[in-house]
Amino acid sequence: xxxxxxxxxxxxxxxxxxxxxxxxxxxxxxxxxxxxxxxxxxxxxxxxxxxxxxxxxxxxxxxxxxxxxxxxxxxxxxxxxxxxxxxxxxxxxxxxxxxxxxxxxxxxxxxxxxxxxxxxxxxxxxxxxxxxxxxxxxxxxxxxxxxxxxxxxxxxxxxxxxxxxxxxxxxxxxxxxxxxxxxxxxxxxxxxxxxxxxxxxxxxxxxxxxxxxxxxxxxxxxxxxxxxxxxxxxxxxxxxxxxxxxxx
Length: 248
What we know:
Blueprint: E1 2-6, H1 14-23, E2 28-34, E3 53-57, E4 60-63, H2 67-78, E5 85-92, H3 104-110, E6 120-124, H4 132-148, E7 156-162, E8 173-175, E9 188-192, E10 197-200, H5 215-220, E11 224-230, H6 241-246
């Protein structure tokens, strides 16, 4: 299979290198990823500026833009053909619960929704993983299973989150749903003067206990979380009572 591999941490991040090596065992892989770290950019695009793309190697390109730019330019220009799938990751840090709204890893994956296979976003709950080689090889195993099975996942993104595990610590994979979080903590005030203040984002809210197995609960229990994100924004809501009441 032909794979466009991207991320939001940068084309030379350790985890994407490990994943490139693993995927290349069975497939043709091209890295098209940001030149610099673009964490937290969601699906932002460089709409109002020109975007430079540098060829680093035969199979590696660095994009002076966002993760979503990487997928767009990769699919529509750089490669010159349509790959079978977009794989985004392995992200340094988890993408769980409603944090996926801000994730550059997810944002890069979203652009590959209309290929032969649904895009896959992969993350690990660590900024310095214990065993990147295991994570990469397990990711290859999961992606190969996707290739072997009809998915019926049009407009969907497969979101995979690993706990920070070594191979001998693996407990299995759980099908999960996104957790919800409570109110975020207040921003951190970094500095202030008489006419301005500087802030930094603080932690997201604590996860809410759900009646179902959430992705956060699964990862915290040592399981690999696999959840399906639905990006079909054209669903028919004709029967919604709110719509009926205001559209008469």
